[in-house]
Every structure is written in C-alpha cells, then in structure tokens.
C-alpha cells in the first residue's frame, strides 16, 4: 500500500488538450488575475492614502481586499503556469501549501465578513455608541481574530489531510489542490478522520451565517423606520455591497461543495470551481465601489494623481 511519503507530486486536471485552448485559458485567467490585482490594489492604496477613509468600515474593507488578493494568488498563478508550459504537475509541498493558504484565506474572509456585519449593525442600530464599541484597538482585535480563526482551521485540516495514506494514485480532478480531491486519493477510512474537523468547521461557518442574518434583520428593522428617503438610501448603500459579497461567496461555495451527486460532472465541477475561487476576488472590488461614493472619489483621486505623475516623468 502506497502512502503519502511515496507521492512526490500531484497531477492537476487539464482544462483542454489542444495547445490553442490552453493558451486561450491562460489569457482569460491572466485577464481575470490582473483585474483582481488592479481592483483590490486600488482599494488598498486608496484606503491607506486617504485619511477620510480611516474608519472601521474601510479598515475591514482593506483587510477584505488583502484576503481576496491572497486567495486568488494561491491558485491562479500555478494554473496559468500550467496552461502556458503545457504541464499538469504540482509538487507535494506546493499542493499542501495551496490547501493551507486557500483554506486559511477563505475561512478568514468569511469570519471578516461576519465582523463587517457587526460593524454595519452598530453603525445603523447604535450610532451613538459606534466610536466606543468600534475603537481602533477593538477593530484590530476583531480583524486579528478573523485571520487567526482562518489560520487555525487551515492548519488542522491540512495536517490531518496530509497525514493520511494515499492509495489511489496522484491525479487530482481539479485545477488546484483541495481537500475533497485529496481525500479521494486516500484510503477508505479517510473520511472518518476528517469528519470531526468538517463538523467543527461547518458549525463555525453556520454560526457566522446565523450572526449575519440576525444582524441584518435588526438593521432592516431600523432602516425601515428612518423617516427620510435619503437616510434610508444612505443606510442601504453601505449594507448592500456587503450583502452582495456575502451572497456571492455563500452561493458559489454551497453549489461547489453541496450540490447533489446526480448533477455532478467533471466539466460542471470545473466551472463551479472557477466561479467559487476566481470570480469573487475579482468582482468584490467592483461590488464595493459601485454604491460607495467616498470610495469611488478616493480611487478616482488616486488614479488622477498617478496619471499626472506618469505624465511629469
């Protein structure tokens, strides 16, 4: 029986067999990756440079942009390299690193979105206590807790997964390494060892979801009592981007991992994986900037300043 020590590399799923399609996929993924880098990079720079955006909401948004950049950079560059060089191989260590960092970043992001729901709840439902409840130290502690929960979860799952003996070869039916695909390569008792950690993680994510739902129930109750239409519009404009990001993340994740086996197919699994791991980090900056005038103004000022500096050079 082969075990994990006898596997030196894994073979990722190829998108296409023809060279032309491989290069087309490379160009498509490169465009998405550059868009994600540009969008999240602009948000990061604008928030860091504009003192008007040094508030708890934008501090958490800065952390979200960092997580999105890290998440898409964990899987996409390796996939693009494989497309370009016409290869499927990823080293054992590289596969473990992909699983570790992707789990770390996605769990940390959902934890941060939960914190952002609390931020919107306090801002709308308890505005007079906003400064005392969400001081700079409290915000830093909540952000650190989100990052820390993601890291702890990722270390436990990754250590458990790669301690299992691998008996079913080294071909991964996905364009990046993920735990369900590695478990398919392991022996029959793999799912029993992973079950406890899965139940724990699902419980935590479910708790976060319940907290977000309860927060927004309270938010909508307060907003609907705001007498002025302008006040309601302003309150909704700060909540809808967050709700859209949460909905996108939850819907793609649920469809990727909870869809019925009867509708599962390699092609559908591949498309869903792209929607789950590639699209949200690229789309999130657009979602947050569409209805946020302050952020749009800061980004526009940053872009104009950068263009002027380039012209002077």
Short description:
With 313 residues, the chain is mainly α.
Helix and strand sequence: EHHEHHHHHHHHH
Q: In what range is the share of β-strand residues?
A: under 5%
What structural class is derived from the secondary structure elements?
A: mainly alpha
N-to-C span: 64 Å
Helix amount = over 70%
Oligomeric organization of the protein chains: single chain
How many β strands by DSSP?
2
- Cα-atom Rg, whole angstroms? 21 Å
Low-confidence segments? 1-5
Mean pLDDT: 86
Strands ordered across the widest β-sheet:
1-2
Subcellular location: Cell membrane
Family: Belongs to the G-protein coupled receptor 1 family.
Transmembrane segments: 23-45, 57-76, 96-118, 195-217, 238-258
Function: Odorant receptor.
Tell me what you see in this structure:
Helix 1 (19-49) packs antiparallel against helix 2 (56-85). This protein has eleven helices and two strands, in the order βααβααααααααα. It has 313 residues and is mainly α. A two-stranded antiparallel sheet has the order 1-2. Mean pLDDT is 86; it is low at 1-5. 34% of the residues are buried.
């Amino acid at each position: 029986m082969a075990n994990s020590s006898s596997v030196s590399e894994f073979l990722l799923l190829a998108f296409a067999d023809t060279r032309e399609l491989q290069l087309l996929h490379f160009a498509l993924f490169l465009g998405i990756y550059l868009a994600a880098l540009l969008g999240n990079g602009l948000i990061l720079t604008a928030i860091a440079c504009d003192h008007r955006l040094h508030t708890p909401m934008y501090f958490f948004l800065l952390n979200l942009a960092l997580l999105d950049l890290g998440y898409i950079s964990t899987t996409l560059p390796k996939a693009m390299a494989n497309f370009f060089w016409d290869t499927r191989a990823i080293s054992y260590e590289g596969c473990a690193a992909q699983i570790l960092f992707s789990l770390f970043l996605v769990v940390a992001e959902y934890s941060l979105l939960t914190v952002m729901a609390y931020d919107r709840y306090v801002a709308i439902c308890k505005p007079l206590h906003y400064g005392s409840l969400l001081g700079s130290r409290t915000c830093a502690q909540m952000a650190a807790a989100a990052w820390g929960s993601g890291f702890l979860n990722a270390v436990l799952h990754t250590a458990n997964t790669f301690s299992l003996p691998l008996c079913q070869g080294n071909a991964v039916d996905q364009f990046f390494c993920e735990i369900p695909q590695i478990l398919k390569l392991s022996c029959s008792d793999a799912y029993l060892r992973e079950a406890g950690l899965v139940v724990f993680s699902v419980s935590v994510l479910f708790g976060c979801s319940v907290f977000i739902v309860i927060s927004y129930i309270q938010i909508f109750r307060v907003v609907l009592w705001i007498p002025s239409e302008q006040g309601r519009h302003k309150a909704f404009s700060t909540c809808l981007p967050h709700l859209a990001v949460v909905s996108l993340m939850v819907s793609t994740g649920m469809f990727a991992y909870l869809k019925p086996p009867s509708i599962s197919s390699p092609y559908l699994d591949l498309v869903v994986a792209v929607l789950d791991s590639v699209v949200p980090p690229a789309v999130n900056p657009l979602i947050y900037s569409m209805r946020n005038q302050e952020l749009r103004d800061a980004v526009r000022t940053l872009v104009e300043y950068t263009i002027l500096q380039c012209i002077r050079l």
